[in-house]
């Protein structure tokens, strides 16, 4: 087959396909530039829809009105509209017209996206596909527009689905012409995902931290690209030509905020992550939600952003047996119950949003889910606005779409009644004046009694067609005195045909008698096939008509559970941040100040406005102070864990050996039960660290355990920046082809990046002085390495063996800076004098070892020996559970001979020092944060537990309050489980 | 000058030699050869009252007298331990001591045998007496380890091992302590049903084997060939060996109880995370629980942060017989005292906490005639401490294992002393 023929064949097939689809409608919108093939089609495209209830826009309804459309555009709408003389008239008696729905985030036309891009000037990373545009990628085959139309949608935003920068979205009408006829608006927004697409293999970025860093770097690159090309084009002589990069070129408007970035989010945290880009870039974010938006409705009210809401609801929790129910967490039970309330809650918070069908596998469920949302309190006008006017204005098509007004596109829905009622069906959808039948109304009703007459009178009688159950016909035929049940009865609406059969015994014939007839008004004309092949003609006259029953509306269970808003929205979540009393006086306790005052017996701790005011004996209580009698109890500073990994989404970015650009602070997640458990064990602050997959890993974050706050409010605002390094087995065993494979390579790649960062800094310094030529590109990875070398980011290095610890100290000394602390350091004791000399601290386990070869020479005396050698030493957990009992970790040091105060310093003051936050926390000294714990005994005793945990002078944990919460959780779980059982039985 | 150099050299050689003598692994002590009396301590017998200013006398490894007024036989080596405390050695009821050395180095672990049905494997025969972790655990007061195989459906037989000795034979206190069964997990009910059937089939086959062999032995049937696996299960059917079933989730625990009654075998629940939900059933059938891992957090978010810490107290209040064990990892046997300590912070009395590490596991696992309390006739396996061994600040100063006065050196102390020497050398330079 030669090539020209193939092309012709394809054209023919495409033409056939389009013709086939278009056959049901009047195709007025052929591509305007295409020549006519064959006969010119000139079917009139003027329609008048009369006697209709017309909802022209949310809250605006015309009863008994007329809508006129001409050539795909609305010509007139109103109660007193004249039907044009050239119009085809459609009687809409009993029907309701709505503006066509707009799906604000869809994959229409994107069902089979191109994965591999192998042409043109691409970006270096396969996740960067911003140069793609929906209109150019649109694939007509099984594009999904029919499913959307069936749910009442006439317009959709088509968003390229793959990658982190996915490409540019376009608005398309859901008609049936070529793409060129459907496109309404292009370049609407850039789609952005906060996580890699798995289609491109396991390469950078492998994690949410990496994805966010890649977005950040790409936005900087787009900005640089624009400036670099301007500089080059203004005076190219002598300059190295900047790269050509379609991705960066396409992002120019987005970087300046002139084109929205449409972030696809999967959780409440991802919304915050997307919006936090505004702290750094002048972008215009839009949010595609995930159904969890109600959890941050307060934040969204204060930080308004266009929101696109899905109506996909979570699966019913598995409570089939009570053992299964035991395993369902309150967070999931609550979310299942509250998910339908999401739109209502946002609406009540004054937020504007548009709907999407995204996440609903079967698009016909959309209307049902919408009605669930209305049952859950969503105002109907708001619901309609979220389907019409809001998305129209968001997508910049409000002059032509979103309402039924003259001049706008003839996009509308014909419904059998009020759309928000269960029994209402969508009958037709019109797109650009093209008709699509969704649910046909019956052309005739065969039900009722018919008087049959036949030529020979042999079966004159009465045929009674009834609906035996919904959608199923049956009935009887009565001949003489015999009433015979019809074995089956069917109608075929399109051919206007009725069929039935019955046993012929009463007619003295043995076998089946089959009837078939055409229906014309109140007459049937048919013939019967008798056993033995006799054929008899018959006709019938209607005696009566039976109307179809109204479709039963679905019973929706009364939503009678009152669930208060919790943050985090899970067990033990709070209704609000605890109060901060103006003054708190804790009296008569043993106070471990961990400062110069040492341990004071029978002492008082005075807190004012969230800070320690005084520690001493017989302090007097300020007026209105909260006074706590702590006789027999001990008070310590809040415990600090120098190394945890809980409360973040993803710990390692393993896509590169050096990932200093990623930041754990980007992916904090408050939906983390560990934080509450850690609070219960007296932990008030922690250093949340990157994993150990990289010689130079990501930047860590210092947080306080402010249970009930938003993720970015956990961060200790004036803590120094720190970075994770990792030596030894972990970084060398990642992947099979990633450098390095040996400890030798670990050392060399770190040294190599140090050199790169020095060169990078030199280039920038040169540019700052001359400002000529092409500006250097900002590289956030090298920015971080440069800051490490300059001491602006403190190195906290994972390590096991003495050789690697010594190596990193010597390497840092070569580059004239110091390592802040070595973590784990199972063999740190072997180089204790060297650590002391270098000035590095040690952050070690109390008693871990033996789990791998580099941990074999462990000793519980590690911290003791380090301390004795003059190394500032802290303990850490590296474990969510152990982080909830760090006092007992310190207590283990007493067993190996460390004095109690030094032991406690290893989870308080020394920890704060090594993390660079000792100006705020770690000891109870005037001016420091009021982070403290009240214990029911000696904090280093196995018989002791925390009774209260305070942060910033606010009581975040209280043993008595905990008992009440526990009880309340049991009750709420029980209520929800009962509710689900009742709802499922309905 | 020459002499001085030689002296230095000899001193240096001696230093090296002394280091090699002070091996990372403790040197086993000789069996007790003379009567020993520890005099003046507060003695916590666990089985009886606390004896203030008491004396405990032991000979040939057995306790021969305890009290405030003990006659010492001639030749008794009497040791003044006034101001100290004496406790029975702690029992680690779930351990991989001797079969686990370095987790991530496969060749150093001997825990899981090939296949799913291994009732015949005997853990003591693979016990490495040179393991570093023996000394480390012993320094924390763990003097008996129930070394337990893992993996599969029927893992093998556990053994009670004494924490001093030259080789596994003399260190074995009791072999065949329990037949270890891993109760299938309930995540997938179809798979659960299949696994339960496999378990029932294995027991039915073994029982049929016993019948056939007995018939053969009684001359009622022809020869039936020896089956290594099924033969190892006969003591279970004869009531001589309990089945230790690892079960945590409520269905697992309940179904294991039902199964044990059907099978007529003696059951011990190992794990027991949800045991507080079915205490009536446990007490009705007198089924003991070895609570593994108190120092952890609940599996379900809604459960209280202290759900695991307070589980032993709940079982105690409900009258369930229980012991406390930590996780099985050998390097962490030294954490065992603190597992019971956490239970004590959360509702269990200190006495009950101690009981759960001593007499309770001894009784549950059928070794109470030898260890678990300080009573005349039992092994002289005991601790001399500065206080309650479950309290962090307490020092375990000396231990005796079956009357052997153990070397208290262990790898942790060894590395400390060696590198303390480095610190001191640097300081003097």
Notes on the protein architecture:
The complex is a heterodimer of chains A (986) and B (429). Helix content of chain A is 26%, strand content 26%. Chain A has 26 helices and 41 strands. In chain A, strands 1, 2, 3, 4, 5, 14, 15 and 16 form an eight-stranded mixed β-sheet that branches. In chain A, strand 30, helix 16 (673-680) and strand 31 form a beta-alpha-beta unit. In chain A, helix 11 crosses helix 26 (959-985) and helix 18 (743-770) packs across helix 19 (780-789). Mean pLDDT of chain A is 94; it is low at 1-29. Chain B has two domains: 18-89 and 373-429, Urease, subunit C, domain 1 (Roll); 90-371, TIM Barrel (Alpha-Beta Barrel), CATH 3.20.20.140. Chain B is built from 13 helices and 16 strands. Chain B has helices at 2-21, 132-139, 168-171, 189-217, 228-231, 234-237, 250-263, 279-284, 311-317, 336-345, 350-355, 359-364, 411-428, and strands spanning 36-44, 50-59, 62-67, 77-80, 85-88, 90-95, 142-147, 154-162, 172-182, 243-247, 267-271, 289-292, 322-325, 382-385, 396-401, 404-405. In chain B, strands 1, 2, 3, 4, 5, 14, 15 and 16 form an eight-stranded mixed β-sheet that branches. In chain B, strands 6-7-8-9-10-11-12-13 form an eight-stranded mixed β-sheet. The longest helix of chain B is centred in the middle third of the chain and has 29 residues, at 189-217. Chains A and B meet through helix 16, helix 22, helix 23 and helix 26 of A and helix 10 and helix 13 of B.
């Amino acid at each position: 087959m030669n090539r020209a023929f193939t092309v012709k064949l394809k054209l023919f097939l495409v033409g056939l396909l389009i013709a086939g689809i278009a056959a049901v409608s009047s195709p007025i919108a052929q591509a305007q530039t295409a020549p006519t093939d064959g006969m010119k089609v000139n079917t009139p495209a003027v329609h008048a829809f009369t006697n209709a209830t017309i909802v022209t826009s949310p809250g605006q309804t015309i009863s008994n009105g007329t809508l006129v459309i001409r050539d795909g555009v609305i010509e007139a709408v109103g109660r007193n509209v004249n039907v044009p003389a050239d119009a085809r008239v459609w009687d809409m008696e009993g029907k309701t017209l709505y503006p066509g729905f707009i799906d604000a985030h869809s994959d229409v036309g994107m069902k089979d996206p191109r994965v591999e891009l192998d042409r043109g000037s691409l970006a270096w990373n396969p996740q960067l596909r911003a140069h793609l545009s929906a209109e150019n990628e649109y694939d007509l085959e099984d594009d999904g527009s029919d499913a959307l139309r069936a749910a009442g949608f006439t317009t959709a935003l088509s968003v390229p689905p793959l990658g982190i920068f996915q490409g540019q979205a376009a608005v398309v009408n859901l008609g049936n012409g070529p793409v060129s006829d459907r496109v309404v608006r292009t370049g609407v927004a850039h789609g952005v995902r906060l996580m890699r697409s798995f289609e491109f293999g396991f390469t950078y970025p492998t994690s949410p931290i990496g994805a966010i860093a890649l977005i950040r770097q790409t936005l900087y690159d787009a900005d640089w690209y624009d400036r670099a090309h301007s500089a080059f084009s203004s005076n190219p002589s002598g300059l190295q030509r900047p790269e050509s990069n379609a991705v960066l070129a396409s992002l120019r408007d987005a970087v300046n905020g002139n084109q929205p970035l449409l972030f696809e989010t999967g959780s409440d945290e991802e919304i915050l992550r997307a919006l936090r880009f505004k702290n750094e870039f002048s972008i215009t974010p839009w949010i595609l939600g995930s159904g969890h938006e109600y959890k941050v409705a307060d934040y969204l009210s204060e930080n308004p952003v266009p929101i696109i809401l899905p109506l996909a609801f979570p699966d019913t929790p598995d409570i089939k047996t009570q053992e299964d129910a035991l395993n369902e967490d309150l967070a999931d039970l609550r979310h299942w119950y509250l998910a339908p309330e999401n739109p209502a809650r946002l609406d009540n918070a004054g937020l504007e949003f548009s709907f999407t069908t995204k996440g609903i596998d079967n698009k016909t469920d959309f209307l049902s889910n919408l009605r669930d949302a209305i049952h859950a309190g969503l105002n109907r006008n708001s619901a309609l606005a979220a389907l019409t006017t809001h998305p129209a204005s968001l997508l910049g098509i409000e002059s032509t779409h979103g309402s039924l007004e003259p001049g706008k596109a003839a996009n509308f829905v014909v419904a059998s009644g009020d759309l928000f009622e269960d029994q209402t069906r969508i009958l037709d959808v019109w797109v650009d004046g093209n008709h699509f039948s969704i649910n046909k109304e019956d052309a005739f009703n065969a039900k009722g009694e018919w008087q049959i007459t036949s030529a020979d009178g042999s079966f004159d009688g009465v045929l009674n067609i009834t609906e035996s159950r919904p959608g199923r016909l049956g009935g009887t035929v009565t001949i003489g005195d015999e009433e015979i049940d019809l074995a089956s009865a069917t109608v075929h609406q399109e051919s206007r045909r009725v069929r039935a059969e019955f046993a012929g015994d009463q007619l003295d014939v043995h076998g089946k008698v089959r009837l078939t007839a055409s229906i014309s008004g109140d007459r049937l004309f048919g013939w019967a096939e008798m056993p033995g092949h006799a054929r008899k003609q018959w006709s019938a006259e209607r005696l009566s008509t039976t109307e179809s029953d109204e479709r039963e509306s679905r019973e929706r269970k009364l939503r009678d559970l009152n669930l208060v808003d919790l943050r985090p929205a899970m067990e033990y979540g709070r209704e609000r941040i605890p109060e901060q009393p103006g003054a708190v006086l804790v009296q008569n306790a043993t106070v471990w100040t961990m400062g110069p005052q040492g341990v004071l017996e029978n002492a008082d701790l005075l807190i004012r406005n969230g800070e320690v005011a005084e520690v001493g004996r017989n302090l007097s209580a300020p007026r209105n102070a909260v006074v706590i009698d702590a006789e027999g109890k001990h008070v310590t500073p809040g415990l600090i864990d120098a190394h945890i990994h809980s409360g973040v989404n993803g710990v390692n970015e393993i896509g590169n050996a050096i990932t200093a650009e990623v930041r754990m602070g980007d992916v904090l997640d408050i939906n983390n039960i560990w934080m509450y458990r850690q609070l219960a064990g007296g932990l008030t602050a922690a250093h949340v660290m990157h994993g150990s997959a990289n010689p130079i890993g990501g930047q860590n974050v210092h947080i306080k355990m402010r249970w009930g706050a938003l993720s970015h409010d956990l961060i200790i605002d004036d803590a120094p920046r720190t970075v994770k390094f990792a030596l030894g087995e972990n970084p060398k065993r990642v992947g099979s082809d990633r450098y390095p494979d040996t400890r030798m390579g670990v050392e060399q790649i770190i040294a190599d990046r140090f050199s790169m960062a020095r060169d990078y800094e030199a280039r920038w310094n040169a540019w700052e002085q001359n400002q000529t030529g092409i500006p250097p590109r900002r590289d956030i990875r090298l920015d971080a390495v440069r800051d490490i070398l300059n001491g602006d980011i403190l190195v906290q290095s994972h390590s096991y063996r003495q050789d690697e610890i010594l190596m990193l100290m010597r390497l840092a000394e070569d580059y004239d800076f110091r390592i802040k602390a070595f973590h784990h350091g199972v063999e740190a004791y072997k180089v204790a004098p060297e650590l002391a000399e270098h000035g590095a601290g040690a952050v070690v386990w109390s008693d871990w070892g033996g789990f791998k070869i580099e941990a074999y020479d462990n000793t519980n005396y590690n911290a003791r020996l380090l301390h004795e050698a003059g190394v500032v030493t802290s303990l850490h957990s590296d474990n969510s559970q152990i982080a909830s009992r760090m006092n007992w970790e310190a207590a283990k040091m007493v067993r190996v001979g460390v004095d109690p105060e030094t032991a406690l310093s290893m989870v308080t003051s020394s920890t704060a020092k090594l993390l660079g936050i000792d100006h705020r926390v770690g000891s109870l000294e005037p001016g420091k944060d009021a982070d403290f714990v009240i214990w029911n005994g000696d904090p280093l005793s196995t018989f002791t537990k925390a009774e209260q945990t305070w942060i910033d002078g606010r009581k975040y944990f209280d043993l008595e309050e905990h008992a009440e919460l526990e009880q309340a959780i049991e009750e709420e779980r029980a209520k929800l489980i009962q509710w689900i059982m009742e709802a499922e039985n309905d | 000058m020459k002499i001085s150099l030689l002296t230095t050299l000899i001193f240096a050689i001696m230093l090296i030699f002394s280091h090699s003598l002070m091996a990372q692994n403790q040197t086993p002590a000789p069996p007790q050869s003379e009567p020993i009396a520890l005099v003046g301590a507060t003695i916590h017998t666990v089985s009886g009252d606390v004896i203030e200013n008491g004396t405990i006398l032991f000979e040939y490894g057995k306790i021969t007298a305890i009290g405030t007024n003990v006659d010492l036989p001639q030749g008794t080596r009497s040791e003044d331990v006034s101001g100290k405390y004496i406790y029975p050695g702690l029992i680690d009821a779930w351990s991989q001591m001797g079969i686990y050395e370095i987790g991530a180095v496969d060749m150093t672990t001997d825990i899981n045998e090939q296949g799913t049905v291994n009732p015949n494997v005997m853990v003591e025969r693979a016990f490495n007496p040179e393991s570093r972790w023996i000394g480390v655990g012993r320094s924390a007061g763990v003097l008996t380890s129930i070394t337990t195989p893992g993996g599969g459906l029927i893992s093998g037989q556990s053994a009670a091992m004494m924490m001093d000795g030259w080789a596994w034979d003399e260190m074995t206190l009791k072999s065949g302590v329990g037949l270890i069964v891993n109760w299938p997990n309930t995540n997938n009910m179809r798979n659960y049903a299949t696994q339960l059937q496999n378990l029932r089939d294995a027991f039915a086959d073994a029982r049929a084997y016993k019948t056939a062999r007995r018939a053969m032995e009684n001359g009622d049937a022809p020869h039936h060939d020896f089956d290594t696996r099924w033969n190892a299960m006969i003591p279970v059917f004869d009531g001589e060996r309990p089945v230790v079933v690892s079960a945590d989730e409520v269905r697992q625990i309940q179904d294991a109880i039902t199964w044990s009654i059907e099978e007529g075998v003696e059951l011990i629940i190992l794990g027991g995370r949800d045991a507080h939900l079915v205490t009536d059933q446990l007490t009705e059938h007198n089924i003991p629980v070895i609570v593994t891992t108190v120092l952890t957090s609940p599996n379900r978010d809604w459960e209280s942060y202290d759900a695991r810490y307070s589980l032993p107290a709940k079982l105690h209040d409900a009258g369930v017989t229980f012991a406390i064990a930590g996780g099985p990892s050998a390097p962490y046997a030294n954490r065992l005292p603190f597992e019971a300590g956490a239970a004590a912070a959360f509702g269990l009395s200190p006495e009950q906490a101690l009981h759960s590490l001593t007499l309770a596991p001894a009784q549950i696992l059928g070794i109470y005639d030898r260890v678990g309390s300080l009573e005349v006739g039992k092994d002289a396996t005991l601790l001399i401490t500065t206080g309650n061994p479950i309290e962090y600040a307490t020092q375990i100063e000396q231990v005796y294992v079956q009357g052997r006065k153990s070397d208290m050196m262990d790898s942790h102390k060894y590395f400390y002393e060696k590198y303390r020497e480095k610190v001191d050398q640097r300081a003097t330079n």
